[in-house]
Write a structure and sequence with these properties.
By secondary structure, the chain is of the alpha/beta class. It has 2 domains: 271 residues, 4-Layer Sandwich (Metallo-beta-lactamase, Chain A); 37 residues, no CATH class. 25% of the residues lie in helices and 24% in strands. It is built from 10 helices and 16 strands. The strands form 3 sheets. Strands 6-5-4-3-2-1-16 form a 7-stranded mixed sheet. Helix 9 packs parallel to helix 10. The longest helix has 13 residues. It starts with a strand and ends in a 14-residue tail after the last strand. The relative contact order is 0.13. Zinc phosphodiesterase, which displays some tRNA 3'-processing endonuclease activity. Probably involved in tRNA maturation, by removing a 3'-trailer from precursor tRNA. Keywords: Endonuclease, Hydrolase, Metal-binding, Nuclease, tRNA processing, Zinc. Homodimer. It catalyses: Endonucleolytic cleavage of RNA, removing extra 3' nucleotides from tRNA precursor, generating 3' termini of tRNAs. A 3'-hydroxy group is left at the tRNA terminus and a 5'-phosphoryl group is left at the trailer molecule.
């Protein structure tokens, strides 16, 4: 699981930062899942290593323009990229379908690829054999959802040498044993696959919370997350603006991470007011957050973060 930040600005793009979008790369499936799709996201895609044909799912948090204005252009371009047969599933608030249908009608755009819109409600949004995705309402000026992506636990390392020492013939049997199944051999012995596997590999958990002011539901959604991506639009010194606009400060994001016992916080969605040369700069927001939650990083466009497993000996590093 690898995260790439395609846009980290709040409200409007800047020369250095585009508006909101985060890509989750799933190498084992050759898929990319997008979280939000602000204006210009497809241009950011062109500047990345991704291919539009890899996009499989798009999760929209809410209907503000800096999170959805890039969606129509991206979908139209995906349709023109070739004869794509695999469907793109799009998840988001109830008005999302009306928005896309109206945009298609008035722009006379025809999507030449299969698309399905899913209206989300708090709870389970998607699941398959490898992943589950949940969402919950946050606190913003319009209905806004945070998303939690959970990788399912996998059986631990299969001890091939031990299996060979026991005289277990290689082949399909190994596959069943790797899954922890009990297998009866031709010689009458029953082998418990779990006895030949190490501890289960605990699935990773990624949580994406933007836009919102501090709220208990964000804490619940982020419980024990390996990575929490949380908006930090404002400095702690501009907390009054945060309360007025229902956005988070750096310290609110850090408090969510601390209360949720997350392992890593990555802040994003920064107000352009903290540009270099101003009285308050983004480095100040990072210092504010780290005073509460030391394991905090500050996202920038095209930053890549590999989510480590708990059993990884070498932890991934994030650029700050």
């Amino acid at each position: 699981m690898q995260i790439t930040f395609l846009g980290t600005s709040s409200g409007v793009p800047t020369r250095a930062r585009n508006v909101s979008s985060v890509a989750l790369r799933l190498p084992q499936r050759a898929e990319v899942w997008l979280f939000d799709c602000g204006e210009g996201t497809q241009h950011q895609f062109l500047r990345s290593e991704f291919k539009s044909s890899q996009i499989r799912r798009i999760f929209i948090t809410h209907m503000h323009g800096d999170h959805i204005f890039g969606l129509m252009g991206l979908l139209a371009s995906c349709g023109l990229a070739g004869n794509r047969q695999q469907r793109i599933d799009i998840y988001g608030p109830k008005p999302l379908n009306d928005y896309l249908q109206a945009s298609r009608r008035y722009s006379q755009t025809h999507f030449s690829l299969p698309i399905k819109i899913h209206t989300v409600e708090p709870g389970l949004v998607f699941e398959d054999d490898d992943f589950r995705v949940f969402c919950d309402l946050l606190e913003h000026r319009v209905p806004a959802y945070g998303y939690r992506i959970e990788e399912r636990d996998r059986p631990g390392h299969f001890d091939v040498k031990r299996a060979q020492a026991l005289g277990i013939p290689s082949g399909p049997i190994y596959g069943r044993l790797k899954q922890g199944q009990r297998v009866k051999l031709d010689d009458g012995r029953t082998i418990n696959g779990a006895d030949l596997c190490g501890p289960d590999l605990v699935g990773r958990k990624l949580v994406y919370c933007t836009d919102t002011i501090y709220c208990d539901r964000a804490v619940d959604l982020a419980a024990n997350a390996d990575v929490l991506i949380h908006e930090a639009t404002f400095s702690h010194r501009d907390a009054d603006l945060a309360y007025q606009r229902l956005h988070s400060t750096s310290t609110m994001a850090a408090q969510v991470a601390l209360s949720a016992q997350a392992k890593q916080l990555i802040m994003t969605h920064f107000s352009p007011r903290y540009a270099p040369g101003n009285d308050i700069q983004l480095s100040d927001l990072l210092a504010e957050a780290r005073a509460i939650f030391p394991n905090t990083a500050m996202a920038h466009d095209f930053m890549i973060y590999d989510i480590p497993r708990q059993d990884d000996k070498v932890l991934a590093s994030a650029s700050v």
